[in-house]
Specification:
Chain B: It is found in: Cell membrane. The complex is a heterodimer of chains A (258) and B (306). With 258 residues, chain A is of the alpha/beta class. Chain A is 39% helix and 22% strand. The radius of gyration of chain A is 19 Å and the shape is globular. Chain B has one domain: Orthogonal Bundle (ABC transporter involved in vitamin B12 uptake, BtuC), CATH 1.10.3470. Chain B is mainly α and 306 residues long. Classes of the chains: A alpha/beta (258), B mainly alpha (306). Chains A and B meet through helix 2, helix 3, helix 4 and helix 5 of A and helix 5, helix 6, helix 7 and helix 8 of B.
């Protein structure tokens, strides 16, 4: 198991956003996390990536307990993510956004990475070049290299989503969390995105995605976990999920409700 | 004196004053850019910087007469003072602001005002309320270049402040840590998700801002001496400069500082505003800017984050 949560709960005041969820991610697979609005999907993401701390329970990554670690530490262990409401560094150029993703990838820890990062421009132009070129590779992967000098905020919506994924990929994650990557995309853009996600997996990166576009989820995911009102109600292959009566009830409401 | 020469004379004076304002305004704006709060103790750090520089300079210089050594020891004193204040700034952040980072927005602001009182009263307690002279490290009699009379002090201010602004712009714009700083100011959570240690970035921001304030403080003290409330009015005006330029924006702080220096100088010299009302000019400009363009000259309208 690449990542798993053990009875993870997150309570805000009296509201239980996530309730004792055991979520599992197998290495090399694309795992879907689905559920109606307010099911706790993003909260679960936040608790696994260090933006939020679980009230109870544990998060294990490659067998190590990472519960309560800070986001920058979790990033360095090999977990990256994107956001539902795109969070690029809007005032920075496209290539700079990706370069930030390489921030901690260079420098020799033993020689004081902090000092190196401070003097990087003045004395380490070669190193800056390496970062820049590497960033271009990631942009190229998503077909964004031509837009490198644009401000991130100037990109069309679909490109912004891709740039956010490119930036996350630049941290060289083992595991990539995508929060509604297809939201707001037109069918062609979604098509392209699905292709990109498959290519990311073929690079050896495991992917977890929250998505409402069922066609995308069912086509691309190897495993699916379903949340409802903070509880895990099902997990399994897309086919099994499609025919799971509990899931159908959660999405369509039970017949008695009518 | 021809009117052209007069103009350039005022321009020089204005740029000198503005350069100092800009150095200090940078500290306000950098901290605001990252933490979204006004570090009201910044002006008092400038005062501590002036005292530290004075002590170091007197110690290094000894009884030596004016000469190359006095100038070198002044520069060394400036470095010492900058380092001292950088450490002081980081220490204040750790003790007085960091514990309040998740608290209501008003809390760190009040804490900053408290720190400001501690510093100025502490200085009065330790070093007395009498002003002390920071001696010029050179003969400060004016020299005439192209019809403009300029003091060596002004030349020093112009060189030091503009060199520091260029260095800071390059650092923030180009270096890896500078990029991390900009990223942190744009979106702290995301920056952290990119592996950036936000605490390091914040410490560094305070260190740089305080070091610049220390240098600014010494440059002011050469003309105005050292006293415990040295930072109050200067700090306030530099804050105005930062707001006028667009708080949170580094180029804005430089622009605002220089603009303020120029307007004060020309206001007194050309518009004939009495010297005693000089300080009012800054605040009148502040009011006008806040009415016309509340986000400042280079500032951007910020959408309130939900």
């Amino acid at each position: 198991m690449l990542l798993e949560t053990e009875k993870l709960s997150r309570v805000y005041g009296g509201v239980v956003a996530v309730n004792e969820v055991d979520f599992r991610v197998q290495e090399g697979l694309i795992t879907g996390l689905i559920g109606p609005n307010g099911a706790g999907k993003t909260t679960l993401f936040n608790n696994m990536t260090g933006l939020d701390t679980p009230t109870n329970g544990k998060v294990l990554f490659e067998g190590k307990d990472i519960t309560g670690k800070k986001a920058n530490e979790i990033c360095r262990l090999g977990i990256a993510r994107t956001f539902q409401n795109i969070r690029l560094f809007k005032e920075m150029s496209v290539v700079e956004n990706v370069m930030i993703g390489r921030h901690f990838k260079v420098g020799d820890k033993n020689k004081g990475r902090f000092l190196q990062s401070v003097k990087s421009y003045f004395f380490m132009k070669n190193e800056e070049k390496t970062i820049y070129n590497k960033a271009l590779e990631y942009l190229d992967f998503f077909g964004l290299a031509d837009l490198r000098n644009e401000d991130a905020k100037a990109l069309p919506y679909g490109h912004q989503r891709e740039l956010e994924i490119a930036r996350a990929m630049a941290t060289e994650p083992k595991l990539l969390f995508l929060d509604e990557p297809a939201a707001g995309m037109n069918p062609q853009e979604t098509e392209h995105l699905m292709e990109m996600i498959s290519r990311i997996r073929s690079l050896g990166v495991s992917v977890v995605l929250i998505e409402h576009d069922m066609k995308l989820v069912m086509n691309i995911c190897d495993e699916i976990t379903v949340l409802n009102f903070g509880n895990k109600i099902a997990s399994g292959t897309p086919n099994a999920i499609k025919h799971d009566p509990v899931v159908i009830e959660a999405y369509l409401g039970s017949e008695e409700d009518d | 004196m021809s009117s052209v020469a007069v103009f350039f004379q005022h321009l020089t004076n204005g740029l000198t004053l503005g350069g100092i304002y800009a150095l200090i305004a940078l500290g306000y704006t950098m901290v605001y850019g990252i933490l979204k709060f006004i570090n009201f103790a910044h002006g008092d750090i400038l005062m501590v910087g002036a005292y530290m520089g004075m002590f170091a300079f007197d110690f290094l210089r000894g009884d030596a007469p004016l000469g190359a050594w006095t100038f070198i020891s002044f520069l060394l004193a400036m470095i010492f003072s900058a380092v001292f204040c950088a450490v002081l700034g980081m220490f204040i952040e750790k003790v007085a602001y960091k514990p309040l980072r998740r608290a209501a927005r008003l809390a760190p602001l009040l804490s900053a005002i408290g720190v400001s009182f501690i510093l100025s009263n502490g200085a009065a307690w330790m070093w007395g309320t009498q002003s002390r002279k920071l001696n010029y490290p050179f003969d400060n009699s004016p020299i005439t270049i192209l019809g403009i009379s300029i003091t060596p002090h002004q030349i020093l201010v112009l060189i030091v402040s503009f060199a520091m602004m260029v260095a800071l712009t390059l650092f923030v714009g180009k270096s890896r840590m500078g990029k991390a700083m900009r990223a942190t100011s744009l979106d702290q959570d995301t920056a952290q998700l990119m592996g950036i240690n936000v605490n390091v970035v914040i410490s560094l921001t305070f260190a740089i801002g305080s070091a610049l304030a220390a240098v600014g403080g010494m440059l002011i003290a050469l003309d105005y001496k050292c006293y415990p409330t040295l930072g109050t009015m200067t700090g306030l005006k530099a804050f105005v400069a930062a707001v006028v330029g667009g708080i949170g924006n580094i180029s804005g702080a430089m622009l605002g500082g220089i603009l303020l220096g120029l307007v004060e100088t020309f206001g007194v010299a050309v518009l004939g505003i009495p010297q005693g009302y000089k300080d009012t000019i800054a605040f009148v400009i502040l009011i006008i800017i806040l009415l016309l363009k509340p986000e400042g000259i280079l500032g951007k309208v910020e959408k309130e984050k939900v």
